[in-house]
Design a protein that fits this description.
single chain, 283 residues, mainly beta, Phosphorylase Kinase, domain 1, eight-stranded mixed beta sheet, 3 helices, 17 strands, globular
Length: 283
């Protein structure tokens, strides 16, 4: 379970500090309250996606870190079994705890705040923590995606698991363009990165090989999970905050070269490890 402390300055910023763990150092950052919208959905929200794919029910009351909460369930379609539970702070609506389950009811992801202070800012902060990484500024609209597909880029509008395309952006410059496609069903999130090149598995530290159905992919476990492979002259990198079964279905639905055609690595560029920080466990 993730554990963290949070301070919320109303109407100005969301500031987040996380305690150190055996795997990650302590960190502090903030999310500017600028109302930025995804490039594809426009006024669409994660809540609308969640309500469109799951049945939302108020199922009781609770508390987190001493604060009263409303317990909300997102249930699998046509079932009374929850896909996720959210503990919402009664006073502010902030999500203080989240649990996500698979189809068998097993907990696959869980996160919770352990210390919460809510209040107005007292004076001007002289030293702000670093902001969360910003999304690439170059958006890719429908006509751009259609043109890119004629040149061999893969830009599906939806993926298995009711994952719809919510954001499309381009980075890396003209010489080494990288396409970043973001998908969500309101509960699970998947980012798909594409860059021209081929894969050199010998340079994939921390990844393990998975083979099946004539495909070879390299997997790095954790949250988010990362899957890397090459196909048709392109390196695909999947960064997923989603159940393992959904990740498997998404990977299978994307292009693959036969195992024997694995090639040489073309890196996605400096700083790729920071991609993991784009996933908010309370989003």
């Amino acid at each position: 379970m993730y554990s963290c402390s949070v301070i919320l300055w109303v109407m100005m910023m969301h500031a987040l500090s996380t305690a150190a763990t055996t795997q990650t150092p302590a960190a502090a950052t903030f999310l500017p309250a600028d109302g930025t919208e995804p490039s594809v959905l426009g006024a669409g929200t994660a809540l609308q996606r969640l309500a469109g794919n799951y049945t939302i029910t108020l199922s009781g009351r609770g508390s987190v870190s001493g604060r009263p909460t409303d317990l909300v369930e997102a249930r699998w379609p046509g079932s009374d079994r929850p896909a996720a539970r959210f503990w919402l702070d009664t006073a502010t609506g902030l999500v203080l705890r989240r649990e996500v389950y698979d189809e068998q009811g097993r907990t696959t992801r869980a996160s919770a705040f352990v210390e919460i202070v809510v209040g107005k800012p007292s004076g001007t902060r002289q030293h702000l923590p670093p902001a969360m990484p910003q999304a690439w500024s170059t958006t890719v609209d429908y006509s751009d995606r259609a043109a890119m597909e004629t040149k061999g880029w893969h830009c599906p509008d939806e993926l298995p698991g009711s994952l719809d395309l919510v954001d499309a952006r381009r980075g890396g410059g003209k010489d080494k363009p990288i396409l970043h496609l973001s998908y969500s069903n309101g509960l699970a999130s998947v980012s798909l990165f594409e860059q021209r090149g081929r894969l050199d598995a010998e340079n994939l530290d921390g990844y393990r090989l998975e083979e099946g159905d004539g495909r070879a992919v390299y997997v790095r476990d954790g949250m988010p999970q990362r899957v890397v492979w090459s196909a048709q002259g392109t390196v695909f990198t999947l960064v997923a905050d989603a159940p393992a079964s959904t990740v498997d279905e998404v990977v299978a639905a994307l292009p693959h070269d036969p195992v024997e055609e694995a090639g040489t690595w073309h890196r996605l560029g400096r700083g790729f490890e920071r991609v993991a920080s784009w996933f908010n466990p309370f989003g």
